[in-house]
């Protein structure tokens, strides 16, 4: 397995430009290589794709990736191909002759990764199993299989046919958003056998979290415009509750001069596709959208996400804010909250097919919006992840309310929950703590409990606030599947036993008020004026270069290189191709393709002449050669003949660099061909009127020496036999 890890790391460096694995990646990959089923839960931007893309390259056959995100599917295939990886896609957005050509390539063994929609897989699964050698199957967005999930898709429940069709191959299920119940569903619904599970942290510390209550529409517009100016080279998303609100927000932002697009399910499919493509390719700076937008957007430089209205559940909220800062760099998220939105959402819940579950999920979302404790701890506790300290990167941490030692309050509440055997909901626990006497309290003899009435000094509203904080802090969990009963978590037991203290925000009655009289400032938002450093100049230059390359190659800008890579280049300020090696996210293929443009931008930012030193093309071929590529592969990547690449390498050898010449061409081949050249060169030159170029076709015709072998040997002869 150690050998496999080295092979995987080599592929990481070569194709992705990464020097190591993120947490959980190698563990999931190694389990799959051992033939085990695998469940991977990683946050958005955590590197899930690597978990199946790398083993697909290392294993015999073709990996089938099931994904409902057709736009993302096509983008990922384009990105993989740009990095030299053999990938294809079959889905309804492609012409049928294109789908057939992709299938045929997979049949011939030319593809390592085949992306396919669940509907098409289920339609073609019998044929695929007979025609294509499948290495393993990866099911992306696996939370769609669970009716507990926020994005349940009935077609996913039929994916049990994967196990039935391929009983002997491994299946990997991947998702970024799944609560406890959804996680439990995934393995059973896919028929996984004793799967290796990796549950990564849901923490996205680079995202700042902020909730703004009661703002006017003008104040919201001003906030969005400010974000757009602050991140003028990047982009953002504004989520709205309705189609009408989306269109209105789009119109207002256009009036402010922003490049903004509108996206909702009521628009024609062609228009939605156009808007999404322009956003991904950087031609739009802002998207105003309903929740119909975003699934399948893998854009790394989304620097901010604004919710104009409260989402219906934490999963949706987490997924939507997760579209910001996928590159790990700082990003902002803002949620505008009004009680009117809650009323609208409640109406949606009444009309839904899962009223109780959706109502409870909305309750938690409302608690998040109204919370006075660390918001990140609330998000993490929802996904059953304990965080024992405040994050320092949310509005409640930056502007905290007065705190109190809530250990005794928490122990009273936890004791009451334990004494009723975790069989009651929040309201009943409050009734017990306050010593109230409704009929069900007397009938169940809860008035006889030691904890009955121990919290009578606090009002119902106060206890409600403190219990909600305990839920938000991960001390208590709500059993949605068991009539919403409260249960202590492991962290809660520690508090109950006196092993851990609790700090709570002092109760304050919520204020909604009438904010309609507020007036937004009419002063224009201006960019700050300051002297820019060479690094800042370079960042802008690289982003402009990235946009130009993306436009020319008809791909999304992040496929050229991410903001993380831009930042790393700006920090290193490289002047030579060798300085680019090891920069995060800059693969060997990308170095070979873009080194001239990148180094020129660096020279411009440093105030140097744009002209690059001579010999850099030789250096690039040498870099690729030393990283294990052969001459033919280098020639294919660089769009050159093998002879030209061989010339680069032999010049480097002549200049004293370490080049293994016998990797250019085997020594035995060199001796044979060089002897033929020496033997026939003079006669051919004489017979052809002095044209030495006639020697190559002569040797090919009479001795079967291929042109690329001839050119490589000639290059070696120039350094080994200078007189030739």
Would you give an account of this structure?
- The chain is of the alpha/beta class and 724 residues long.
- The chain folds into five domains: 2-199, P-loop containing nucleotide triphosphate hydrolases (Rossmann fold, 3-Layer(aba) Sandwich), CATH 3.40.50.300; 207-398, P-loop containing nucleotide triphosphate hydrolases (Rossmann fold); 403-505, Winged helix-like DNA-binding domain superfamily/Winged helix DNA-binding domain (Arc Repressor Mutant, subunit A, Orthogonal Bundle), CATH 1.10.10.10; 534-613, HRDC domain (DNA polymerase, domain 1, Orthogonal Bundle), CATH 1.10.150; 642-720, no CATH class.
- The strands form four sheets. Strands 3-4-2-5-6-1-7 form a seven-stranded parallel beta sheet, with helices on both faces. A six-stranded parallel beta sheet has the order 8-13-12-9-11-10, sandwiched between helices. A two-stranded antiparallel ribbon has the order 14-17.
- α11 (269-280) links the parallel β10 (260-263) and β11.
- The longest helix has 21 residues, at 667-687.
- Residues 510-528 have low confidence and may be disordered.
SSE map:
Layout: H1 2-16, H2 25-33, E1 38-41, H3 48-58, E2 62-66, H4 70-82, E3 87-90, H5 96-107, E4 113-116, H6 118-131, E5 134-139, H7 160-165, E6 171-175, H8 180-190, E7 196-199, E8 207-213, H9 217-230, E9 235-239, H10 243-255, E10 260-263, H11 269-280, E11 286-289, E12 302-307, H12 314-321, E13 331-337, H13 339-351, H14 355-370, H15 375-382, H16 395-398, E14 403-405, H17 407-419, H18 426-434, H19 439-443, H20 460-472, E15 476-479, E16 485-488, H21 490-496, E17 503-505, H22 534-553, H23 563-572, H24 577-580, H25 588-605, H26 616-626, H27 631-638, H28 642-654, H29 661-664, H30 667-687, H31 695-703, H32 707-720
Parallel strand pairs: 1-6, 1-7, 2-4, 2-5, 3-4, 5-6, 8-13, 9-11, 9-12, 10-11, 12-13
Antiparallel strand pairs: 14-17, 15-16
Helix pairs in contact: 1-3, 2-3, 13-14, 17-18, 17-21, 18-20, 22-23, 22-25, 25-26, 26-28, 27-28, 28-32, 30-32
């Amino acid at each position: 397995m150690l050998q496999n890890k080295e092979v995987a790391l080599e592929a990481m460096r070569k194709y992705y430009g990464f020097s190591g694995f993120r947490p959980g990646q190698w563990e999931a990959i190694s389990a799959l290589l051992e033939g085990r089923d695998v469940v991977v839960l990683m946050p958005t931007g955590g590197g899930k794709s690597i978990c199946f893309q790398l083993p697909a390259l290392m294993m015999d056959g073709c990996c089938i990736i099931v994904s409902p995100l057709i736009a993302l599917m096509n983008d990922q295939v384009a990105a993989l191909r740009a990095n030299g990886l053999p990938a294809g896609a079959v889905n309804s957005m492609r012409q049928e002759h294109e789908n057939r050509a992709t299938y045929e390539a997979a049949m011939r063994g030319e593809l390592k990764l085949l992306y396919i929609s669940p509907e098409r897989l289920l339609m073609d699964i019998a044929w695929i199993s007979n025609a294509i050698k499948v290495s393993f199957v990866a099911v992306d967005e696996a939370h769609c299989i669970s009716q507990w999930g926020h994005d349940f898709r009935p077609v996913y429940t039929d994916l049990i046919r994967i196990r039935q069709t391929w009983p002997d191959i491994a299946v990997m299920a991947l998702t970024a958003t799944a609560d406890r119940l959804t996680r439990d569903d995934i393995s059973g619904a896919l028929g996984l056998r004793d799967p290796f599970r990796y549950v990564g942290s849901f923490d996205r510390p680079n995202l700042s979290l902020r909730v703004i209550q009661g703002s006017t529409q003008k104040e919201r517009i001003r906030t969005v415009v400010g974000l757009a100016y602050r991140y003028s080279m990047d982009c953002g998303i504004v989520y709205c509750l309705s189609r009408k609100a989306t269109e209105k927000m789009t119109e207002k932002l256009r009036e402010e001069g922003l490049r903004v697009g509108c996206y909702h399910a009521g628009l024609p499919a062609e228009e939605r596709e156009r808007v999404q493509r322009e956003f991904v390719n950087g031609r739009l700076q802002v998207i105003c959208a309903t929740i119909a937008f975003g699934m399948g957007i893998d854009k790394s430089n989304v620097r901010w996400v604004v919710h104009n209205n409260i989402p219906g559940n934490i999963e949706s909220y987490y997924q939507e804010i997760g579209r910001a800062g996928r590159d790990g760099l700082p990003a902002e998220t803002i949620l505008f909250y009004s009680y009117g939105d809650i009323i609208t959402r409640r109406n949606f819940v009444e009309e839904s097919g899962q009223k109780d579950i959706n109502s409870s999920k909305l309750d938690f979302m409302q608690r998040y919006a109204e919370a006075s404790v660390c918001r990140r701890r609330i998000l993490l506790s929802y996904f059953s992840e304990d965080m024992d300290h405040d994050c320092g990167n949310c509005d409640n941490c930056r502007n905290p309310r007065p705190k109190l030692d809530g250990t005794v309050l928490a122990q009273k509440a936890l004791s009451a929950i334990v004494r009723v055997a975790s069989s009651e909901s929040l309201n009943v626990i409050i009734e017990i703590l306050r010593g109230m006497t409704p009929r069900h309290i007397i009938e169940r003899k809860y008035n006889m409990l030691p904890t009955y009435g121990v919290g009578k000094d606090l009002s119902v509203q106060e206890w409600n606030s403190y219990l909600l904080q305990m839920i938000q802090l991960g001390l208590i969990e709500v059993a949605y599947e068991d009539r919403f009963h409260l249960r202590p978590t492991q962290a809660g037991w520690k508090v109950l036993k006196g092993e851990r203290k609790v700090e709570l925000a002092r109760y304050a009655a919520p204020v909604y008020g009438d904010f309609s009289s507020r007036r937004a400032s009419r002063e224009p938002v201006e960019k700050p004026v300051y002297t820019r450093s060479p690094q800042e100049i370079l960042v802008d230059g690289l982003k402009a270069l990235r946009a130009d390359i993306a436009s020319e190659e008809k791909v999304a800008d992040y496929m050229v290189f991410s903001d993380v890579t831009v930042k790393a280049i700006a920090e290193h300020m490289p002047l030579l191709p060798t300085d680019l090696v090891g920069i995060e996210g800059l693969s060997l293929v990308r170095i070979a393709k873009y080194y001239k443009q990148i180094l020129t931008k660096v020279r411009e930012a440093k105030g140097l002449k744009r002209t690059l030193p001579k010999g850099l093309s030789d250096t690039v071929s040498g870099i690729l050669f030393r990283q294990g590529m052969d001459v033919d592969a280098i020639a294919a990547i660089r769009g050159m003949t093998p002879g030209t690449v061989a010339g680069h390498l032999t010049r480097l050898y002549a200049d004293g660099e370490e080049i293994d010449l016998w990797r250019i061409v085997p020594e035995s081949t060199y001796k044979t061909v060089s002897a033929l050249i020496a033997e026939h060169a003079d006669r051919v030159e004489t017979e052809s009127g002095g044209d030495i170029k006639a020697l190559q076709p002569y040797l090919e015709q009479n001795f079967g020496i291929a042109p690329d072998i001839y050119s490589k040997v000639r290059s070696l002869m120039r350094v080994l036999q200078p007189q030739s």
